[in-house]
User: Fold this.
Amino acid sequence: MVANGHDGLRRRVERDIDSESPAEPNGVDVYRHFFDDEGWQVVEVHRGRDGGLADAEDDTLYYLTDAQLTRAAQVDAGGDAIGYVETCPID
Ligand SMILES: [Ca+2]
Ligand SMILES: [Ca+2]
Assistant:
């Protein structure tokens, strides 16, 4: 089960996931919050196990762009690459 939340401009700002679904659905256990730049590209993602933002146990991931401002890589808060455009989990 995946439920997306949108803001008033229809940008996706939240995704709630039951990672055991559909085999053994037991409720949402992964929460992601998305932050866009002025061009509506996601530039920051918070991943956590509850709905609260920026808890110490949450992961914060950032997208880096190339010279054309297209997302090119995803890095963690320490600057280590998580993936590149072909392999970046966008959600
Ligand atoms: Ca679950
Ligand atoms: Ca949290």
